[in-house]
Amino acid sequence: MGRIDEIMTFNSGFVTTKQYEQYATSKFPDKRMVILTCMDTRLTELLPKSMNLKNGDAKIIKTAGGIITQPFGSVMRSVLVALYELQADEVFVIGHHNCGMTGLNPELIIEHMKERGVPEERIDILKNSGVNLMRWLTGFDNVRDSVVNSVSIIRKHPLLPANILVHGLIIDPDTGQLELVDKADVE
Questions:
Q1: CA distances in angstroms from 32 to 53, 113, 127, 162, listed in the order given
Q2: pLDDT at 187 over 70
Q3: Separation between Cα atoms, residue 61 and residue 39, nearest integer Å
Q4: What does the pLDDT average to over 118-145?
Q5: What are the C-alpha distances in Å from 82 to residues 59, 87, 139, 162?
Q6: For residues 139 and 102, is the Cβ–Cβ distance under 8 A?
């Protein structure tokens, strides 16, 4: 059984009692920043609190590992939309220690897919269609290198405005301590 009934019941009370009012803000980030980070559950509240952010301060993009794998994928598109349409003017790529993407084994993920009912024929069709599942499902070996790589992809993007600062950080998911690993040069 899913959690949808529990969520819908809670949501009805949330709206009826106007609990949403404390979160009212606009679509534009008050601190004009966009954050690319991991979807790790430990960061949901810890990351904003560790950066002194409240609802409405930043655009937060979450992906597995907080990484950009290609310069023209949906993650980079989201960064550019935040910069051009939503008034953000500074980018923070934030990885974290003990990330599930560290040492991710694509062969094991494919085995788990099969165990959960994805037919092997479907996987073979993808492989034969030119989809490199091994590359697509690969994580990274070192969080610092991963952050620096994503920062580099953003900084070198042909559509990035010249005046945008892009920084790389690593957060400790237990304490919230931030480590600056790649600070943008301010000209």
A1: 11, 40, 41, 16
A2: no
A3: 9
A4: 92
A5: 7, 7, 25, 15
A6: yes
pLDDT of residue 79 exceeding 80: yes
Residue 69 has pLDDT above 90, yes or no: no
Spatial CA neighbour of 43 closest among 26, 57, 64, 22:
64
Could you tell me the pLDDT band of residue 1, with boundaries at 50, 70 and 90?
low
Q: Kindly list the structural domains of the chain, giving each domain's residue range(s) and its CATH number in brackets, ordered by start.
A: 24-104+139-182 (3.40.1050.10)
Residues 95, 37: Cα–Cα separation, whole Å: 6
Tokens of 97: 């220690």
Strand-by-strand arrangement of the 33-38 sheet: 58-63, 33-38, 90-96, 165-171, 178-182
- C-beta separation of 137 from 113 below 8 A: no
Q: Check residue 160 and report its DSSP letter.
A: S
pLDDT above 90 for 170: yes
Residues 6+ apart with CB under 8 A from 47: 35, 37, 53, 60, 94, 171, 176
